[in-house]
Structures are given as C-alpha cells and as structure tokens.
Write a structure and sequence with these properties.
heterodimer; A: mainly alpha; ABC transporter involved in vitamin B12 uptake, BtuC; B: about 270 residues; alpha/beta; Rossmann fold; 6-stranded mixed sheet; globular
Chain lengths: ~350, ~270
C-alpha cells in the first residue's frame, strides 16, 4: 500500500482568502453571534413590553421598576400577574420553536410543525381526558398525561407515516388526519362535560392568561432539559439532514438521533401544551424565518429559534391583550392568525421553486 | 501489518438482502489495497448493494465485512468514519446550505463535544475544496450549482473526512460526458495520492480506462475480476451484459475499449 493513512490533498497551501471564505470561519460566525445578540435584545424589549401591557398599562420604565424595585407602585401587578405570564410565554415559545426545528430536520419536511402534525393535539387530548374523566386538575398532574399524549402521537406518526421511508407527503397527510381526529375528540369531550368546559375553555385555544408562578416553576425543568438535549443533538441532526446513508458514512447514528429527537419533541411539546394549551404555527414559522438568517446549520438554528420563538409568542400575547379591550384574545388564536398566511406563503413559494 | 496480509477491506460469504428480497448469497469480495477498484455490471446485479455493504450502511443478512480483520459492525462509528468514506448515491443538500458549510460537515467524525471546530478543520476543508476545484464556489449555495459542480462538492465533503479508503456509489450518474470524465479524472487523482478508491460505474469503457482492478458482477455474483487489460474480453461482455461486441485497444490509453456490435451494419454501410 502506498502512502500513509493521513494524506495531504494538495501541495499548495490554501490562499488566505480561501481560508477566510470558509463559511464556518470567523466572519460568518461573527455575524451570526451579533445576530443572536440582537435577537436577545429584542426578546428583552418584548418581555418588558409584556410586563407593562395590561388592564393597568405602564411605561417600559415603570415596568422595569415594577420588576426590580419592591417599593415601586407596579411591583405587585408585575410580580403576581404579568411576570408569570411573560415567563410562561418565554418557556413555551422556546419549547415550541425548538421542537419545530427538530421536527423539520428529523422528517426532512420543511412544513412539519408539532401543532399541525398532531403532537400538540395528542397532548391536548390526553390532558382533556385527565381533566374530564380522571378529575386531574393540577399542572403537576396532567403534565404526565401531556407527555404520554404527545409521545404516543409522535410514535404513531412515525409508524403511520412510513418510518424510515416516510415521504413528506405521507407524513403530512398522516399528521393532518391525526390532528383532526384528536381535535374532534377534544371538542366532543368538552361538549359532553360542561362542568370541565370552563376550566378548559382558555386552555384549549392556547393561552398564557391563566399563568401562575407555580406552573412556571414546574414547567422550567422539563423545558430546560428538552432544550439542553436538543442543543446536544444539533450536530447529529445536521448529519441526518443529508440522508441516512450520508449520516452513517459520517459516523452518526441515524436511528439513535431519531429516537432522541422524538424524546425531545415529546418533552418540549408535552410540557408547553400542558402549561398553556395547544399552540400552532410557532414551531413552523420561526424556524423558517430563522433559516433565512442562519442557514440550515442547527448549531445556530436552534439557539436562534429558542430566542425568537418566545418573541413571536409574547408579541401574539401582548396583541391579544390590546386588540379587544377590555377582554382578551388568546395567544393561540393570534399565532394562527399570523401563522396561517405565513404558512400559505411558504407553501406557495415551495411550489414555485419546484416548478 | 503482517506480510501475508489480507486486503484491508473484504467481504466474506455475504448474503445481502433488502427486507425479503435477496440480492446476493455467498458473495466473497476483496478490495486490493491501494487500488482503484471499479464494480460494473448490468442494472440490478447487486453492485451498489455490495458497495453499500462494504460501506456498512447495509448490514449483511449473513457473512461479514471485515476492515483490518475486524467486523465492520464492531468498529466505533466515528473511528470507522475516519477510515472509510462513502459518497452515497442519494444525498440531500439541506436547503440554503453553502458549499463551504456542506464540505465542513465532512469533519463530523473528527469532532466531538469537547473538540469543536478547529484550525485543523479549517485547513482540511480548504484543502478538500481546492483538491476538487470548488474553492471559488465556497460561498455559493449548493442548490444553485450544476450537477457536475454539486458532485465535486459532495466528493470534497467525503475528502474532508480524511479517510484512506473512499467508496463512491455511481459518482458519474446523471452527469454529461464532459463532467463524467472530470469526476473520473478527479477520482484517479485521489487514487494516485495514495487512497484506495472503490467506485460503482455504469459505463464499462470508463471502468476499463480508469480502474486498476475491475470487478464484474451479474445476478449477485462476481463473474470476473482483475486488471481490466486481462479481464475485459468480448466473451466477458457477452456473458455479463448479454451484449455482442468487439474489444479493441483504446487509442488514447491502450486499455480495452468495448465497441458494441451493430445490428444494422448492413443498412449503415449500404451504398
């Protein structure tokens, strides 16, 4: 055998300009880091607005003082009502956005979204069952039902959609059918059990209004665990995005990456749905918009989604508090109102590209 | 390494199957070290399946693929990916990925949680792009490239893995003739730099010109193997492809050149 195991490819050293052009190198990384910083700033501003807007509106300055100064007049309003609500939006938004990005990569389907493909509906169906038939009434009680529901749908979707040979169309059809069936079930239970209806009314459409500090604290560990595992999965998912053969050739384990991915989606969607009801389109829209900024590299896509999805969530929630004063429109309604047209836009654009 | 050594990459008594469809049984295959081995044969003869088994993306139903005497399935995945590279037939370029980013993904087996992107990675990616002639395309989107350029980018990604053995599954399919030759010249360069290269090719003339070791397959069996000059004969082509032909020396290289027999010779040469 000639040569050694480690071979040089060329005798010419690459020119410095070629080296700096490498996209993972410093220039691109700098822009991406700066963009992430800007996104964090936007999130801080939106959070502050979320603390200030409500039945008793405050300026951003007053909202800030209400947050940090126990003697400020707005302290109790901010801490008892608006802070839990804002934190819930942060956590649920991050969870749904990251889950959407993971799902789109796993299925290699840019239109995958846990809200559209029935994952959130599965959690909702399980929670409704727990409330109505088993008398479960606390978050700590029904979060486990939510995990079971979203996990069951994820596995079912995988099986019905054709497993490894799943085509985007098959997966979308299976998901849409599951979604419709589960929502009919949720609505049927509501109609049959009017007593539980009141408790479920806000929750079913996806709302941050009933946020309590205790729920936020219980949601926190699940969301953080889900996000942490998702970030660890970024590189294997990058490999998986190029096809199973390519992933395996690179030394990744497609089956394991897929299994862990399903666990991440279950954890994030189950927890978010248990806390604020099924919310659609956040997981679809944000990864799409972010991909235009970062490209398809999940090591950047996931952190961006984790920051920008809560921005969308909080904007939807704040708008909901403002547009129909003195009553409120639930955030879950507004994400659909905003998300529907965006979804159509992407579907149309893909067709144009394919033609 | 011992003197009386087996080649690094061999398949022993392989049974290859997809679900319940058996492609090959009792197949023995060896890739000579340092060779440019080309596997040829008619459609559905099992050539790509064999390559996929050698590359460990298809697990044999029976028998074993051995690399350096060890079952390929028992190699740690990343260590294997630093030794054996594969250019699969169908890879998906993620939407909106740039050439440099795609090539950089070839560094996966060299990275880990604690070993993130390094100067070494940077250098290898640059060299891989230079070696395949795609350095000027570094910032372009892969979606925008021509078929030939895209194939060179995928090869660059496989090169960035820095493997001494490189397997290519039909690297020239869907390319026009000029790009086919360009890719084959590139493969020959990679071989001359010291790699063991294994490719599945459709075109027997290309195989005869570029291969140092030819493996001809039919119905899941190896019909003949060896240097193209010794193996490629009119009888073999008739036997493997059921194609009557003449074999003449390639005027450019002297390697065997297959000229299919003309059914309508009389018409063509009529006065």
């Amino acid at each position: 055998m000639r040569g050694s195991t480690r071979l040089s490819l060329t005798t010419h050293p690459p020119s410095p300009s070629a080296a700096t052009r490498t996209a993972s190198g410093p220039p691109r990384r700098l822009t991406r880091s700066a963009g992430l910083l800007a996104a964090l700033l936007a999130l801080a501003v939106v959070s502050l607005i979320s603390l200030g807007v409500g039945a008793r509106p405050m300026s951003l300055g007053d909202a800030w003082r209400g947050l940090v100064d126990p003697d400020a007049p707005g302290y109790s309003v901010v801490h008892q009502m608006r802070l839990p609500r804002t934190l819930l939006g942060l956590l649920a938004g991050a969870a749904l956005g990251v889950a959407g990005a993971v799902m789109q990569t796993l299925t290699r389907n840019p239109l995958a979204d846990p809200g559209i493909l029935g994952i959130n509906a599965g959690a909702a169906a399980a929670v409704v069952t727990a409330i109505s038939f088993l008398g479960v009434s606390t978050f700590a009680g029904f979060v486990w039902f939510a995990f079971a529901g979203s996990g069951a749908v994820a596995v079912l979707l995988y099986a019905v959609g054709g497993g490894r040979s799943a085509t985007p169309a098959r997966l979308a059809l299976a998901g849409a059918a599951l979604n419709a069936a589960l929502y009919s079930y949720v609505q049927a239970v509501q109609l049959l059990d009017t007593a539980a209806l009141d408790q479920m009314r806000f929750w079913i459409v996806g709302s941050l209004a009933s946020a309590q500090a205790s729920i936020v604290w219980q949601l926190l560990p699940f969301t953080l665990a889900g996000l942490a595992v998702a970030f660890l999965l970024a590189r294997p998912l990058n490999a998986l995005a190029m096809g199973d053969d390519a992933a395996q050739a690179l030394g990744a384990n497609p089956a394991r990456a897929r299994a862990v991915g399903v666990v991440v989606i279950t954890l994030l969607c189950g927890a978010a749905t248990a806390a604020c009801g099924p919310i659609a389109f956040v997981g679809l829209m944000v990864p799409h918009l972010v991909r235009a900024l970062t490209g398809p590299d999940l090591r950047w896509l996931l952190p961006y989604c984790a920051v920008l999805s809560p921005v969308l969530m909080l904007v939807a929630d704040v708008l909901g508090r403002v547009v129909a004063r003195p009553s409120e429109v639930q955030a879950g309604v507004l994400t659909v109102v905003i998300g529907g047209p965006v979804f159509l836009y992407f579907v149309r654009r893909r067709k144009a590209v394919a033609a | 390494m011992s003197d009386n050594k087996q080649p690094r990459l061999v398949g022993e008594d392989l049974t290859l199957a997809y679900d319940r469809r058996t492609i090959a049984t009792g197949l023995d295959v060896a890739v000579p070290d340092g060779s440019f081995t080309v596997i040829v044969g008619p459609n559905a003869c099992g050539k790509s399946t064999t390559l996929r088994a050698l590359a460990r993306v298809l697990r044999p139903a029976a028998g074993a693929v051995l690399l350096d005497g060890e079952r390929i399935g028992s190699w740690p995945a990343k260590k294997l990916a630093r030794t054996l590279g594969l250019l699969p037939q169908s890879s998906i370029a993620p939407e909106g990925i740039t050439v440099a980013d795609l090539v950089a993904r070839g560094r996966y087996p060299h990275q880990g949680l604690l070993r993130q992107w390094s100067r070494e990675d940077e250098r290898v990616v640059g060299e891989s792009m230079a070696a395949t002639g795609v350095a000027e395309l570094a910032d372009r989107y892969v979606d925008e490239l021509s078929g030939g350029q895209r194939q060179r980018v995928w090869i660059a990604m496989a090169l960035a893995q820095q493997t001494p053995i490189l397997l290519l599954d039909e690297p020239t399919t869907y390319l026009d003739i000029a790009h086919q030759i360009e890719i084959l010249d590139l493969c020959a360069d990679l071989h001359e730099q010291g790699r063991t290269v294994v490719a599945v090719l459709h075109d027997l003339n290309h195989a005869a010109r570029y291969a140092t070791h030819l493996i001809a397959m039919r119905d899941g069996d190896i019909v003949a193997e060896g240097p193209p000059g010794e193996v490629v004969t009119a009888e073999l082509v008739e036997k493997v492809f059921h194609l009557p032909c003449q074999v003449i020396p390639d005027p450019e290289t002297g390697t065997p050149l297959i000229v299919p027999a003309a059914r309508r010779r009389a018409v063509a040469s009529a006065p």
